[in-house]
Amino acid sequence: MLTDIEDRKRAEETLRRNESDLIEAQRLSCEFQHERDRLLLLLDLSNRVASDLDLRQVFQAISSEIRRMFNATSLDWRGRTAGANSCVNT
Does pTM surpass 0.90? Predict the structure, then answer.
């Protein structure tokens, strides 16, 4: 009977550790996805700048990518979305 109680306690402790590990893995997964998205945006912008020497087209490409990333409809020169009072933070 004592071994049954000890086995159950060990199983419960293992379950708590596994739950904790799962929560940490999910947090890290979200963090890595955010970092990947940020790096992909940077890579895409770098590629567009490198392949396009016309400054106006470079700025249009950059603003297009920023709008796509932040799901904004327009962006003014101060980094604000149209109709919004707050700046877009990266």
Answer: no
